[in-house]
Amino acid sequence: MWKHLSLAALAVAVAASFGYAQQKPNKVVIPVEKTAATSGQQMYANYCAPCHGTDGKGNGPAASALKKQPTDLTTLARMNQGKFPEAHIVGVLQFGADVPAHGSAEMPVWGPILGKMGQSRSQEKQLRISNLTRYLQSIQAK
Fold first, then answer.
1. CA distances from 69 to 8, 18, 58, 96, 113 (A)
2. Which of 23, 95, 116, 125 gets the most CB atoms within 10 Å of its CB?
3. Which of 24, 46, 41, 55 is nearest to 133 (CA)?
4. CB-CB contact of 89 with 133 (8 Å)
5. Are 66 and 51 in contact (CB under 8 A)?
6. Would you tell me how many other CB atoms lie within 10 Å of the CB of residue 69?
7. CATH fit for domain 33-138, picks 3.90.120, 1.20.58, 1.10.760, 3.30.70
8. Per residue in 35-93, pLDDT tens?
């Protein structure tokens, strides 16, 4: 009897530990406050710095929780033969990127902000993308 009870308890423990191991890790939640569309630096500090770091080098406080180290945004021009990849950056901000660290195509923070801006707020969305792109261009390593 004890043998059957012990086996049953062992089976339950194994099943429980397997179920626990299959759970998804906790998501990192970054509180987002809406910023002025006119300040690329302010948008970067609020939306990008938690992962990419205040200096843009990919060392933000949430970086360690990601599957892959965030991109060093200060080397975008260097990685593109000295030319800042403006069209690529605009595309990533507008449509997202297929980056494993992000989980989905949308930037974790940008998705909810820009995704909710429909046609009526199209100008604000474009202003935000343009100003953030210009800020990223200003932090390129020389």
1. 43, 28, 7, 17, 23
2. 125
3. 41
4. yes
5. yes
6. 13
7. 1.10.760
8. 888 999 999 998 889 889 999 999 999 888 887 889 999 999 999 999 999 999 998 88
